[in-house]
Amino acid sequence: MSGGGSEGTPEPGGLRAALGGMTTRGRSFLAAGVAAAVCSYLLGQPDLLRVGLLLTALPLVCVLVLHRTRYRVAGSRALSPARVPAGTESRVRLLMENVSRLPTGVLMLQDRVPYVLGPRPRFVLDRVEAGGRREVTYRVRSDLRGRYPLGPLQLRLSDPFGMCELTRSFQTFDTLMVVPRVEPLPAVRLAGEAAGYGDGRHRSLALAGEDDVIPRGYRHGDDLRRIHWRSTARHGELMVRREEQPQKARCTVLLDTRDLAHPGAGPDSAFEWAVSAAASTAVHLLERGFAVRLLTDTGSSVPGPDGAGGFPGSAGSADTAGLMLDTLAVVEHSEEEGLSAAYEVLRGGSEGLLIAFLGDLDTEQAAIAGQMRRRCGTAIAFVLDGDAWSRGPGGIRFATGQVPIAERLRLLRRAGWTALPVTPGDALADLWRAAADQAGTAPGRLEPGPDGAAETVTGGRP
After folding, report:
1. Assuming Cys at both sites, which of 196, 245, 305, 337 could form a disulfide with 209, CB separation 3.0 to 4.6 Å?
2. Does an H or E element contain 371, and which?
3. pLDDT digits over 142-182, tens only?
4. What DSSP line would sit under 386-404, residue for residue?
5. E strand or H helix at 320, and its extent?
6. Which band of pLDDT confidence, cut at 50, 70 and 90, is reported for residue 214?
7. To 5 degrees, how large is the angle CA 160–CA 166–CA 169?
């Protein structure tokens, strides 16, 4: 069975498995038959021996008949949807079909699901005629993001006397992806955003668009309709017209996943807030036309490295958003001690907009974050207050041993970051609006350059 509706058949079991599936009733009949046979020998009662043989043979015959039964049952599973945000439900539809020429007996179905998705669903199907179908549905839900396997489906067969039960499992399973919650963000103007988002977008030299006055040499794969015949005759080789296409504004979303940077765990922890906020930011910027890259403190980026940048190329924003959400669904705490790996990735090129979700920082890591700021035009940091997030029941505060939040903000702002503190209960939409206001008035505001790269200017104009 699979989420796409492909069929599967249960794995058959051997005779030993059939004997192992004998129920309590069957074992009781077998034990009573053996006891009756022994008593008939000791007491010299041949009639009691007949009774013992009957009691012994009945469960064994049921086991043999059930073992020889060749039901051909096909099943399929469909998830609707297969990717859900944390805290929402997904509907699972199971379709069973009897593809044999014989009707089945009573079938008991059980689908194996992780305990975080709820109890295992069980269904009882009455006699299914030859070629008949039965459909059942159930719902799963998880408040924790992650990748959860569904299946394999187990089919339990039983004889009419209840002497034996056989469990056969289908071979395939499906995967339910529970992604972080995505919060809608206000459509505010960010520094580094291409003006107008349409006709006002800057353009760069590429392989499709309007003609440029300077031709270039023909390359394998170029459209023959773009050949510039005058230049070809002049240079004695094929020349094609250079063209241009819209250039997207670029953004890197940096997620600090260090274990020592985020105290606590669970759905309401600081780390889960940061993961959800990173997902919301990436999806929001993709919808607004940005070329977005997700980067963690380990140096891994999504989409994968594309040259030196790692930004998405021709892939659609929906595919990129799905890839990022799937990555964030399974991201865990890292064992990194600092942000050096992420800085090494950022120093390889010029960034446009850098949005970071940072945890506890010491003075050294704050200095590294300051160096990241030099690689971009505008940098916005949402700094989680570990001291506030680490308070236990009754307001008990657990020491984190890190630099106080006020000092972290001061160090980041001194390096040119637009830094905002994040405490439990803060709404990302409000922080997003406040960050846009502060970034818009920052002395080093980012504006798009003529070649699509970011340029930092002073004052309110480029």
Report:
1. 245
2. helix 363-373
3. 999 999 999 898 888 888 788 988 888 888 889 999 999 99
4. HHHHTB-GGG-B----S--
5. helix 317-329
6. low
7. 135
Q: Which tokens hold the place of 131?
A: 């070629």
CA distance 49 to 41: 8
145 Cβ contact list (under 8 Å, min separation 6): 86, 178, 179, 180, 272, 275, 328, 329, 330
> Is the alpha carbon torsion for 253, 257, 260, 265 positive or negative?
positive
Q: Please tell me the predicted confidence (pLDDT) of residue 207.
A: 33
Structure tokens at 61: 């015959």
72: closest CA among 18, 14, 146, 7? 7
Contact 232, 324 (CB under 8 A): no
Q: Which residues contact 158 (CB under 8 A, 6 or more apart)?
A: 66, 105, 106, 108, 164, 165, 166
Residue type, 283: V
DSSP classification of residue 314 = S
pLDDT value, residue 210: 39
Spatial distance between the Cα atoms of 432 and 278, rounded to a whole number of angstroms = 12
The Cα 125–Cα 138 span in angstroms is 15
> What is the spatial distance between Cα 239 and Cα 211, in angstroms, rounded to a whole number?
13
Q: How far apart are CA 217 and CA 208, in angstroms?
A: 15
The length of the chain, given as a count of residues: 462
Name the token pair of 163: 């002497």
Token pair listed for 9: 């058949």
User: Tokens 């997030």 appear where?
Assistant: 389
Here the tokens at position 284 are 């929001």
Predicted TM-score of the model (pTM): 0.74
